[in-house]
Amino acid sequence: MDTIIDLSPSELKIEDIFIQLRNNAKNIKDTNAKERIQKLEKIEQYILKYREDIQKAVYNDFRKSPTEADTTEILSTLGLLRHAKRNLRKWMKPRKVGSPLNMLGTSSYILPEPKGVCLIIAPWNYPFYLAITPLVYAIAAGNTVMIKPSEISNHTATFIQTMMDDLFPSDEVKVVQGGVDVSTALLKLKFNHIFFTGSPQVGKIVMRAAVEHLTSVTLELGGKSPAVICEDADLKDTTDKMTWGKFINAGQTCIAPDYVLIPKSRKEEFIEQMSNTINEFYSPNGEVVSVSEDFCRIINHNHFNRLKSIIEDAADKGATIIMNGEMDENTKFIPPTIVTNVSNDMKIMQEEIFGPILPVMEYEQLEDAFNIIEEKEKPLALYIFGKNKKLIRKVLNNTTAGGTCINETILHINNPELPFGGVNNSGIGKSHGKFGFDGFSNQRAVLKNRIGMTTIKTIYPPYGNLAKKLTDLMIKYF
Ligand code: NAD
Questions:
Q1: pLDDT of the residue at 452
Q2: What does the DSSP 8-state code read for residue 413?
Q3: Among 244, 283, 299, 336, which is least packed, fewest CB within 10 Å?
Q4: DSSP character at residue 84
Q5: CA–centroid distance, residue 194 to ligand 1 (Å)
Q6: By the 8 A CB rule, do 426 and 220 touch?
C-alpha cells in the first residue's frame, strides 16, 4: 500500500474515498460491454430527465442562455455519449494484429484493459460537458472515477455531485468538490490516470504531480488559437462563423478563435462585416447587447478585471477598441469587442484571451502570418478561411495545431471520429470517440504461441551455426 505523508483531516477523507475506488476497481474491470452501456444509459436518462436543472445550474454560474446550455452542454455531451454506446462493443474487442515472418508460429492481439482508478479535474467554462464527457470514456473503458469539478462554476459542480450520488455507488464514481487545496490533495494520490482540462499553467502542476507516481495523463489545455483569413475568403460567411465561434459562451471557450490574421487589403471590410454580424446576432432589433438573453456573462470578477486590464493595456499601447456597448462590472458584462492596430507587445497578443475580445492583425504576405503564429506556443485550434485549395494547403503545411476547421470554427469538437486535444503547450493526449476510450485504457500487447514452436527457438543458446545463419538472414531481410 502506498503511504501518503502529512495529510490534513480533509485529505484523509479524500484518501478514504480513493481507497474505496481502488478496492472496487478490480470488480469494475470485469464488467462487460452490456453492463458498461447500461451505465452510460443511466447517465443519458438522467441528463434527459434533469435537462432544465442543468440549464439552470449553468445559467446561475454565468448566465448562459438555456438554448446555448442545450447545444454546448447537453447536446454535445449526449452526442459523444450515444456515439460511445454505439461503438463500445467494437472498442472493447481484442484487436488482432499481423505478425512478421520471423515470428512464425505466434499470433498477436491488442487487449484494451481499464487503467484502474482515474481522476478527472474539470474547468469552469463548459462545466457540465467537460466533467461528464471524460467520465463517459472512463466508464466505457471500465474504470472507477473521482471527479473534481471547478469550484468556480459551483452551481454546476453541486448538480454534478448530486447526479453522481444518485447514479453510482461511492466506490465507483465519486465527486469531490473544492479548489486548489482539494486538487493538491488529490494529486498526491496514486491514480492510474489523470484527465485534466484547464490552463497550461495548472496542466504543468498536474503533470509534475503525476511524475511522482508515473501516472499517465491526458492534458486538455488552452492557448491562442488563430484564425487565418486568406485573400479570397467570403467575408460574409467568414464573419458569421467567426462571430459564432468567438462570442458563444462570451468567448470563454478553449477553442474560440483567439485572434484574426487578415490581408491588409481586406481588414476594413472584415471589421465592418464583423460589426454587422455581431449586431445581427445580439442586437437584432437595435437594442444593446447587454439586454440580449443570448450573450453570457464573464464567470467572475477576477476574470472580468483581467479582461478589462488587457483591453486597457491594448488601448494604452495604441490599439483601437471597437466595443459593442459598455462594460459593466456589477453584472460582469463585457460586450463583443474588436481590437485593431494591435501589436505583439500588447498583453492581448501574449496571453490566451478567454473572453469576448477579438484582436485583428493584418498581414502583407501569408508568410508574415505564419511567423506571427510560429512565435507563439502551438495552438489548440487553428482556423482557415478561403477558397483557393493551394492557399489552404499552404496554411496547413506551414502551421500546426491540435485541430483545424476550414471555413468553419469550433465544429471539429463535435465530430467524435476526430481526435480532440492539443499539441505540447495546448495539450497532451487526445479525447473523444475511440481516442477517448483509448486514453482511459491500457493497450495491452498480447502474443500467443500457436504451435508450441517458434522460429525464435533456433536462436536460443548455445549459439550454433544455424543460429548464426538465421540471424544473418534476418538482419539482411527483416
Ligand atoms: P484552471 O487551470 O485554472 O483550472 C482547472 C481546474 O484545475 C479546476 O478544477 C481548478 O480547481 C484546478 N486547479 C486550479 N489551480 C490549481 C492548482 N494550483 N493545482 C491543482 N489544481 C488546480 O482552468 P480554468 O480557469 O478552469 O479554465 C480555463 C482554461 O482551461 C483555459 O486555459 C482554457 O483554454 C482551458 N480549457 C481547455 C479545454 C480543452 O478541452 N482543451 C477546455 C476548456 C478549457
A1: 67
A2: G
A3: 244
A4: H
A5: 13
A6: no
Q: What residues contact 39, with CB distance under 8 A and at least 6 apart? A: 139, 168
Percent of the chain exceeding pLDDT 70 equals: 97
Which residue out of 126, 197, 299 has the highest number of ligand 1 atoms within 8 Å of its CB and is therefore the one to mutate? 197
236 neighbors 273 (Cβ within 8 angstroms): yes
What three-state secondary structure class fits 384? strand
Distance 221 CA to ligand 1 centre (A): 8
Entry pTM: 0.95
Alpha helices, H only, 399-464: 433-439
| Separation of CA 252 and ligand 1 centre (Å) | 12
User: Tell me, what's the pLDDT at 7?
Assistant: 45
With 60 as the cut, is the pLDDT of residue 3 above it? Answer: no
Taking only the tens place, the pLDDT of each residue in 159-203 is 999 999 999 999 999 999 999 999 999 999 999 999 999 999 999
- In the beta sheet, which residues pair with residue 216? 193
Q: What residues have CB less than 8 Å from 84, skipping those under 6 apart? A: 40, 136, 137, 140, 416, 433, 436, 437
* Nearest C-alpha neighbor of 306 from the set 355, 250, 349, 257: 355
What b/e sequence results for 362-375 when a residue is b if at least 16 CB atoms lie within 10 Å of its CB, and e otherwise? bbeebeebbebbee
Q: Where in the chain is the domain with CATH 3.40.309.10?
A: 226-418
- The radius of gyration of the chain's CA atoms, rounded to the nearest angstrom, is 25
Query: Is residue 230 over pLDDT 50?
Result: yes
Q: Specify the CATH class of 226-418 in words.
A: alpha beta
pLDDT tens-digit profile of 384-422?
Answer: 999 999 999 999 999 999 999 999 999 999 999 999 999
Place of cell 459542480: 157
Domain(s) labelled CATH 3.40.605.10 in the chain stretch across: 9-221+429-442
**3-class DSSP assignment, residue 273:** helix
Contacts of 389 (CB under 8 A, 6+ apart): none
**Which CATH number is correct for 9-221+429-442, 3.40.605.10, 3.40.50.720, 3.40.50.2300, 3.30.1490.20?**
3.40.605.10
Query: Is residue 202 in contact with ligand 1, taking CB distance under 6 Å?
Result: yes
Note the pLDDT tens digit of each residue in 57-71: 999 999 999 999 999
